[in-house]
């Protein structure tokens, strides 16, 4: 069981991406992370939420993005998911520079960034059933170390 947690759900609209990023950063700030750690977390939230909106729901604003953040000691656990289309070929989707939406000028680096910025990264998807991105990061702050 986590020491502390928060859950968030919101419409799959691109204007809500910054809200999600700032909300997660505010919640995690109680562990006194460094600016680099906050930047990494904000970046992965941004990438994951954008993937849910653009790929999971194909920019359908009726979709819902779900976020759960858990704090356990000095570890942040983050789950970001949608109930959208799912990913047909997860290995292909995780390849750097691959994008299923080249017409939107997508870089195809989202999963690579998430994997590199976090200590643990897991992608679970079911075609027609949605996608869940599960990540963990240890915060190297004094407050987290001494709690």
From TrEMBL:
Physiological role: Binds to sigma F and blocks its ability to form an RNA polymerase holoenzyme (E-sigma F). Phosphorylates SpoIIAA on a serine residue. This phosphorylation may enable SpoIIAA to act as an anti-anti-sigma factor that counteracts SpoIIAB and thus releases sigma F from inhibition.
Domain Histidine kinase/HSP90-like ATPase: 36-141
Keyword Transferase: yes
Domain of life: Bacteria
Annotated EC: 2.7.11.1
Entry's Gene Ontology BP terms: asexual sporulation; negative regulation of sporulation resulting in formation of a cellular spore; sporulation resulting in formation of a cellular spore
Catalytic activity, reaction form: L-seryl-[protein] + ATP = O-phospho-L-seryl-[protein] + ADP + H(+); L-threonyl-[protein] + ATP = O-phospho-L-threonyl-[protein] + ADP + H(+)
Gene3D superfamilies, per database record: Histidine kinase-like ATPase, C-terminal domain
InterPro entries: Anti-sigma-factor_SerPK, Anti-sigma_F, HATPase_C_sf, HATPase_dom
Keywords carried by this UniProt record: ATP-binding, Kinase, Nucleotide-binding, Serine/threonine-protein kinase, Sporulation, Transferase
Full protein name: Anti-sigma F factor
Any one Gene Ontology molecular-function term assigned to this protein's record: ATP binding
Family assignment from sequence similarity: Belongs to the anti-sigma-factor family.
Keyword Nucleotide-binding attached: yes
